[in-house]
Amino acid sequence: MKRFKEGLEKGAIMLVDTTLRDGEQTAGVVFSNREKLRIAKMLDNLGVHQIEAGIPIMGGDEKQVITEIASYGLQASIMAWNRASIEDVKSSLECGVDAVAISISTSDIHITNKLRTSREWVLENMTQAVEFAKKAGVYISLNAEDASRSDIDYLIKFAREGQAAGADRLRFCDTVGVLEPFRTYEVVSRIIEATGMEIEMHTHNDFGMATANALAGIKAGARLIGVTVNGLGERAGNAALEEVAMALKFLFGVNLGVNTKDFLNLCEYVARASGRPLYPSKPIVGTNTFAHESGLHADGVLKNPNTYEVFSPEEVGLTRQIIIGKHSGSKAIKMKFEEYGIDLSDEEAADLLAAVRSHTVDMKRTLFDKELMYIYEDYLYEKKKPPRLG
Ligand code: MN
Q1: Which of 83, 161, 259, 332 is deepest in the core (most CB within 10 A)?
Q2: In terms of domains, do 163 and 297 share one?
Q3: Tens of pLDDT along 10-19?
Q4: What distance in angstroms lies between residue 241's CA and the mean position of ligand 1's atoms?
Q5: Could you give phi then psi for residue 170, rounded to 5 degrees?
Q6: What spacing in Å lies between the alpha carbon of 169 and ligand 1's midpoint?
Q7: Could you tell me the distance, in angstroms and rounded to a whole number, from the CA of residue 202 to the centre of ligand 1?
Q8: Is residue 283 part of a domain?
């Protein structure tokens, strides 16, 4: 909790990780309690400011593991998720968390079709739940579900009444991922202007813009970003922790103080625990993010990594790879052989390059180092072979 409190006092930009709540809501994903505990510790070591640990009203294992996470005395604040119901909040308080998220829909689509009620009912129930939590002295995030499709005037009214009841921030939920950065900037600016409230961005990736929308919210004055490891989450997922942190650092110059070197470890752990392997081109931690094959790129990176890399692979726990394949150039081939103590002449490199291209096209993939050595052996053998007699 200490890290979160200090961040609030300093007015820092902070990460709210919801891998254990929204991440686990992904269709087909379940974490074991051991995995949840491990992930919470890893997130805390990484430097995340707040961890949304789950939904206590579900009871059973879920409630037990949230209680255990809350008992560790982590640096991060531990938050539990609730509907706008006193029963839910009671259940969260029993877990010993220091923060609660109180969630209710604010869009007419949800109010009419899902809740089958009225805007007034939403305000009343929200107010009761927030007031109840406030009396218990916990930090309160008021979640406006489907905020991005809500009538803005009603949303502002909702935020103001929540604030009056004791909410500490508004979670602006792009529940179905329909925001784009320009609109995000406009809407979030307007809410901040009207309420002066602390805003957390909660963005989904349905159109591939979760990270961009989260950053647009920060530009507009939001200070908290809801994220999940690997962007795990319902449908196309949430804004990814590792993407948001690195984008803030390198595009906005905002250092969150997270141990980025642990990203690969954490991302691989969550990938295994969720049964969702990292795809090769996954931004920040995919195996391809620091692999260079094309001759021009490999040559550039070998001369100076800045030519084709914005940050060094070590910064996120990866290593650079020069891949030998169809698009390789002779410089990369020479470098590869040097790793094995073989100095190729220009002529040999050119011959081998032709052989490598032909092999990779036949096999439709890049080559392992061992295969390169076999090609080299064959090449030497062919060279020494006496010419065939007519
Ligand atoms: Mn969500």
Answers
A1: 332
A2: no
A3: 999 999 999 9
A4: 14
A5: -110, 125
A6: 16
A7: 7
A8: no
Query: Both 270 and 362 in a single domain?
Result: no
CA distance 37 to 43: 10
Task: Identify whether residues 242 and 368 lie together within a single domain.
Answer: no
- pLDDT for position 390: 57
Find, among 145, 162, 297, 152, the residue nearest to 226 by Cα. 145
Q: Which two tokens stand for residue 279?
A: 């795809």
Is residue 223 assigned to a domain?
Answer: yes
Distance 134 CA to ligand 1 centre (A): 24
Mark which of 274, 307, 339 sits at the end of a domain: 274
**Closest to 223 measured CA to CA, from 255, 200, 245, 203:** 200
CB 266 within 8 A of CB 285: no
Placement of tokens 């087909």 in the chain: 28
Residue carrying the six token digits 């109840």: 132
SS (H, E, C) 246-270: HHHHHHCCCCCCCCHHHHHHHHHHH
Which own/partner pairs from 114-119 qualify as long-range (CB within 8 Å, at least 24 positions apart)?
A: 119/154
Domain coverage including residue 371: 291-384
pLDDT digits (tens, 9 = 90+) for 182-202: 999 999 999 999 999 999 999
Rounded Cα distance, 195 and 179, in Å: 21
What spacing in Å lies between the alpha carbon of 51 and ligand 1's midpoint?
14
Task: Verify that 29 and 172 share a domain, yes or no.
Answer: yes
207 with 67, same domain: the answer is: yes
Task: Evaluate whether residue 181 is within a structural domain.
Answer: yes
Output the CA 19–ligand 1 centroid distance in Å.
10
- If one counts the domains in the chain, the total is 2
Residue 118 lies in a domain: yes
Rounded distance between C-alpha atoms, residue 112 and residue 158, angstroms:
16
